[in-house]
Amino acid sequence: MASISSTSTFFIEREEFLGLIGGFKEGEDNEKSVERLKTILDRYLESPTLLDPHLEEIMSSLVTPSSSMIHSLYSSGTISDDLSNTPTNEGPPLLHTYLSLISHLSKVRGYKTIKKLFTHEAVDLEPTLMCLLSQDPQNHALWESRYALLLWLSMLALVPFDICTIDSTSESSTRTTSNLVETIIKISKSYLSDPGPVRESAAVCLSSVLTRPDMEEGYLQDFMEYAKEVLMIRVGIKKNDGDDGKSNTVSHLTDNTFLTMGLVHTLAHLFKYGHREKFLIYVDAFLEQIILLAENGGSQTMLRKLLVKLFQRVGTTFMPVRIVPWRYQRGRRSLLTNMESKGEGKEELTESEVTEEPDIYVPPELEDVVDQLLTGLRDRDTVVRWSAAKGLGRITERLPRECADDVVGAIMELFNDNETDSAWHGANLALAELARRGLLLPSRLPKVVPIIVRAIHYDVRRGQNSVGAHVRDAACYVCWAFARAYSPEVMKPYVEELAKGMLLAALFDREINCRRAASAAFQENVGRQGNENFKHGIEILTAADYFTLGNRVKAFTEISCFVAGFEKYRRSVIGHLKEVKLFHWDVEIRLLASQGLGNLVALDKNYMADVVLHELISKVCDPDLLVRHGAVLGIAEIVKALKSNVSSKHTEITNVVVEVEKARLYRGKGGEIMRSAICRLIECVSIAQLPLPVKTQVRLLDSVDDCIKHPLEEISLSAVAGLRALLKQYFPVASTGPSSRLHSRVFQKYAKVVEEEDNAAATRGFALAIGCLPAKLLAFNDEALETAVNLLCKCADINFKVGEEPDAETRRNCVKGLTEIVKTVGVGSTKIQTFPGTDKATLTSVGLSPPLTTKIFTTLFSCMEDYSMDKRGDVGSWVRCAALNALETLTLEAVDASKNLKEASPDPTSATNKDDEDENEILPPLAERMQLLDEDIQAKVLASVQSSSPMNEEWRSVDTPPQYFDVQTSITVLGLILKQLAEKLDNVRDLAGNILHRLLNENKIPLVADRVFLTEALKTKANETMNWASPHTTFTMIIKAMNIDVYHEAIVEGLAVSVGGLTESVVKSSSGALIDWVKTMKKLKGWRHLARLGRTLVNLMRKFEKDERIVVPVLKTVHLLLQNEALRSEERRTAKENKTEETEEEKDRFGPTMLKLVKAEAHGSKSYKKIVAIVDVLIDLTAEIKWSGADDEDKAYFDEVLTFAFALLGHPFPKVRKYVAEQLYVAILENEGVVKDDSKYDNACSVILETAWDGELEQTEEQEVAVRVRRNELADLMGVELSEKARAKKVVKKGKEKEKKDELASYMSLVKEAGR
């Protein structure tokens, strides 16, 4: 089956692209279409060749209308044909649109390819040049047009005619204007100092003109002299005459820098495309200047790259083009032919068969050029090194064999430990280039191959990190080039070394690009060199392909085992892990290396036990942190895999912990990771069941206890894992349970720390430790288990404090501890276990009783309401996530226990009596239960007769078995999960959604109320993976479940928090889903559902009174619903019309009830955020005001709404008053009925607009009219009756106020001030 990839394989947007271009029209705004076209092209930046089949069609659709418009402008005289004067008309906008797209296409595909697709008719030359002359160089917005025109002109300059014959100005014998060639050269030179890409196209254009075979020597000579003069000024050989002996200004220096880059670029093109004989006379004149310029290249990467290109072109100018006879030639390069040949036949010339090459003169100046290119291999930028490598390849293929060998030797000298990583990278690129061209002879391979193998694993520490990924990637490129360059016979002696190097890099390199590069090189070698050279190559490639190696964990732990299964590579894989990767600078690599070693133990147990383990034990106290940490990790994983095979070394292994602690390696830098490694070692030793004396067991327990209370969670978790394994394997107990000493040492100690310790790190760690205790220490009797459960339930409460402060991590770990206890002891079951000891004692561990199960359920339900906050944010979400996982575990255990109990002891008193049994019912069918009941009664009667004793009262009644899970518990559990699924945190929603998916679709939980509707609403299918973290996906689904009565309130509570949240994506998705639901209910006339939603929101306001976390989001939700007319009284009344009788709750009108609640919330509140939400709801309620036709109840309600609004209009906060006034004005505009008297409507609006509501509330001496006065005036106009207390005015005199509030007038204030 073909693999699915997101990579494009063809130009899929062709129709859209061409359609957008064809839709351009003059005078219209085409900006959006242009942006869309550029976005399409940008998708192909990584694979531009996909555009090649369509480039001609695309360019034709762009160039043809552009040419037509240019000709039209030229023929109409809009652009002048006088070459001496620069026209000012830059052309129509549509022309620049086409040219801009051509420029962008050139950026994606490259100017060399695009240049060939321009029209090249002679008639286009002058109009295109005139259009270019009409462009304003200072108009930076149209730089793309100038770029495209210069590129077009570079193609037109190559017309196969004498340019003078198509020069219209040549018709005048006495003209004073410049001719066509001079104009092209002049305009191109002017753009050489451009700071952008226009400089590149100007250089291309200039080189096209000056390299024409019929071009007069004078033009080329003039330009060369000009370039030489500029370069001499740049390197300081000649002083700029225009500077009057003074230093250049900053602006001039910048211009000179860009001009230098443009000139160097032009010179590189000239030496590349020009005739060698014509340019030889200029080489000596420029060599000194460009060498000096290279030595002072500075920080400009582009300049250094262009200089390297110029050096290589100058070098190729020195040497004539030829195919050197000494070059290595491989005959057959076909992959199919190579695989069929099986090494038969002669494929290349041997070195003895190479014909004698003639003597060739090598100019001494070439040595300077090669030296500069070798220096370029050390450059800090990759583009410069790559250009230098290609340059060395081009020059070397023209040199005699001795000189070429010297070049190879100079490159190999760069593979030195004293050289930088840049030098190694550049040398690798150069060797690959030489090998690809056949210039690296087989005689050099014995020295080159070991160097390349070293480069494949090049990794040099730089502080806390390392460098060398680019070197390793380039070394893989060299291996790839070797596979294509040499025959299998030549490569055979080096195949094993290269194969191991490539495989180790493919399996164990830290970087994904290096692993994939090594895999590609290995694949190329297997294909080109044949399966005989690369043993097991096909099998390895099948397992270690490009995509599989992208997963680093899988590469280390799985694929490496497959490769090591071949004996040829086994010791290399093991050796690389134990000598290199186990001591890597990245701790993640060390962990993976240790796991990989553990997985490889099964392949070579003796070598691991006798050699590898011995070497690692000797390094556990090494001064280097990386070495000792990796050694301990390696020992741990090997011991775990070997198990009983290391019994002879168990003393040395357990002494590792003692040696590390004696050396005090827990202290100082790296002590944390050493603690974690030691805990892992203790865990693995326990899993391996090594024989340990009691003294050693206690010592290891002390070590683990010391790490459990560490502040770093990673160390604490490692210690808990070690404790779990240690206590499970060691510390035997009697049949009656652990000794009092052991119980006191473990459980009682941990419980005391959790309950009384002030150190939060200790309480966190030991809460987990209690949960991980084995059943022999935790559940040897009911009392012990109850003590542990009660302790963790108590500490999981939101009111529990560590010291004087609450600690969310402690509560979270208590919940995790409860989860582990449930997993360990189970619910309602007993387990008979045998533990190691002298008497091989057996112990019956108890399970969770119904009261304990109920207590844990109650605790978890309480933890699901933990929304505590601190400076880190919603830390309560950690507790809720832990509680969600615990609920899933406890629910499944309780369901299993309930099934077993009911099947064993059927309950005849059950009211279940259905013909069609529900698939979710726990109880067996009624007939089966009655049969079991009869058998039970008969057995008890028979026992009574045989014993001659009367039946006891308890025998006459059937015992009801304990219940662990019922319908109400199911509703509560699912409601809490649905509530979290509807809330605002992505990670919580994701966890809740996955848990719900498992519970519903795997039929793990019975008694699901409305299972069909719930499953249908959530669209959860057993094999479908949902992205529950996506707000758009989740809220669209959860809103459908809101119609289920038993889950309605829980979903609404979570949804309200999301609607009133702060995250834009969550608010947008949840609000949109809620509004869509409202619209659907309106369309279906589901007034009952809308009314229930209103009642639920009212209940939430009552339940969470004064709790801003819930109240503010609920108010925002109410505001949203009122704006969409979902909670209007008319709809409530319509709902009542269809009912004959209503409950007391349904008789409450939403508006008056909500008004009372918001007034209570506003009372005494200083939260601006809450008050604004209250104002929004209040203004929404004014939309119902309609005085005409209203009854007394409605009028009283309307008066109360407006009175409260005017009370807020006199709020002490200026921002609140201003906001209330703004919203009230909008409400009056939308509903003119708010004002009782229509004649006063305009006056009321004027008062609102003319009053500065954020001014002084009370009257002062400076402010004659206070805000309160204006508020009272507005109330009179709108017919709102305010109380005398609310209307009271106070005149405040600032002088008296200061005198009254003079705090320094008392002796006590003086004492306080002096004590500061």
UniProtKB/TrEMBL annotation:
One GO BP annotation is:
post-chaperonin tubulin folding pathway
Q: What positions does the domain Tubulin-folding cofactor D ARM repeats occupy? A: 302-538
**Region Disordered, residue ranges:** 899-918
Keywords attached to this Swiss-Prot or TrEMBL record, sorted alphabetically, are:
Chaperone
Pfam families from the UniProt entry: ARM_TBCD (PF23579), ARM_TBCD_2nd (PF25767), TFCD_C (PF12612)
Q: Is Chaperone set as a keyword in this record?
A: yes
Residues in domain Tubulin-folding cofactor D C-terminal?
A: 973-1170
Q: Which GO terms describe its molecular function?
A: beta-tubulin binding; GTPase activator activity
Please list the residue ranges covered by the HEAT repeats: 369-406
Q: Which PANTHER family match?
A: BETA-TUBULIN COFACTOR D, TUBULIN-SPECIFIC CHAPERONE D
Q: Can you name this protein?
A: Tubulin-specific chaperone D
From which source organism is this entry? Triparma laevis f. longispina
Taxonomy, top ranks, is: Eukaryota, Sar, Stramenopiles, Ochrophyta, Bolidophyceae
